Structure formats: structure tokens, C-alpha cells
Amino acid sequence: MHRPARWGLGAAGAGVAVIVGLEVASLGEMNLLRRTISEHGLGPDGWIFTVGVALLAVGSAAIGVSLARKRLAGVAGVVALTGWSVGLLMTAVFHKHDWSVGPSLSGDIHRAGSLIAFLCLPLAVLIISAPWRGRRSGRQWSGRRRSATVAFALGVCSAAWVAGIVTAVLVGADSGLPWYRVMPLGLVERGLAVTEVAALLALGVWGAARLGPQGGDEVLDVVAEDGGHVHPVRVD
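The chain above was modelled as a monomer; its predicted structure follows.
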């Protein structure tokens, strides 16, 4: 298993566990249909939310490093995945508006970070996984194609959630209603978060897998620029 991907999956998994724990603990106190996940960042226990999201961001960055080192992701995909990590760190460090007090600079930065993260992750998954879905021969290519197809499908679902939110914003602007009242924002955000994290973990599992012969170091098949024979590249 590729070490950066292994560390990334561990950190991301720990972050997800922390946030799920907060969700379970607040079942009787928070309206999950309307209140967003970031509500956990307010109050004296907000540091727990910060730790959870920061772990997810660091894990995402490590997965990106693994994909880049194994030549599974190009520059555009890595940049988009980095945008997701940076956006998550912004939401972790800067908490959302506490409307009992009023708007704040921290809340504005938090909102910008959320927007960056939620837009970048589907883009990253689609860019990274799409080229690997093409038909190739051999067991090694077949395994990559299946992994890429799973990641790609989750990326499409994530993009669909984002499109739904954009539609709600447009409907709200047309009807004069606040966009977050057009839909159950808490439910939609949680659906988006679950889908995007699943897509991220799919990339992490793909990056961690050894697809070389007899479980050895992975061998990537890189087509020559002239379209001729294939050069094997060994990745430790």
C-alpha cells in the first residue's frame, strides 16, 4: 500500500469519525434538516469540529500526493484536489456566522472556503478519474478501470448535488425567498458532504492499491509520445 495514501486514508477516516460523532451527539439538539454541519463549530466545543475538518483536509492532501507520485493524477486534478483541501482548512479555522451575534469576517471566510471545497472536489474527481476509464487490455488495466469508474460515478453524483444547490439559489433569486429556505439546506449539505467524502475515499483506496504483479511495486504503463510501444514505470 502506498504510504501517503495510507496516511491520507487514516487521517481522512479519523476526521470523518470525529464529525459523525458530533452529528450523533447532537441528534436531540440540532435540526439536521435545516442546520448545517458547520453549526458544530460554534460554542465551547467548536475545537472538536475544527480538529475533524482539519484531519480530513490533511488526509485529502496526502491522497493527492499519492496520486501525483503514482502518476494517476495530472496537474489540473492535483490543483483541484488541493483547492478542496485548502477550502476545508478555511472552514476549519474560520467558523461560520453566529447569527445570535451577527455577521463576521470569520463567517465570510468560512463561507468562501465551503464554496471552494464543494466546487473543487467534484471537479478533481472527474478530472482525475475520467482518463482511466478508457478500454485497455490486461488485469492491471481492468482493475484501474473499475476503480476509476466508481470514483467517476461518485464525482458525477457530487456535481449533481452542487447543481441542485445552484438551482435553489436561482429559484430563490427569482421568487424573492432566501435560497437556503428553498430547500432543506442541512439535509442537502449532508448529502453533498457524504457523496464528496465517499468520492475522496474512493480516490484514496485507488491510490493505495498495489496493482502490480504478485503484490509487488506497482508498474504503470505509460504510452510513448509517438503512440508506439508501452514503457513500464515502476513506482515504489
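The beta strands are 218-223, 230-235.
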